[in-house]
Amino acid sequence: MNDKLTVIAHICAKAGRETQVREVLLGLIAPTRAEAGCIDYDLHVSQDDPRQFVFYENWASESHLQAHANSAHLRAFRNIANEILERPVEITKWSTLP
Known about the structure:
Alpha-Beta Plaits
């Protein structure tokens, strides 16, 4: 059985906080990519709305994703998220079809 999963995280910055959110999100990339089980972790910004960001992530397993969720850098992000984001991060999990 393939335990690999894909995560798509939609993030919306508060108006006027786009640059700050971009910098905070960019700061998550290196430590996340260094985590065990991280296959890829790519940040995208909307071409139509600079407030909209998406992380496209692939993880070796759910347990690796859970370790990521409990990482120091993600906890630090959650501590400031309410003040810089328009709404909570929307996270969806996906499986690859054969």
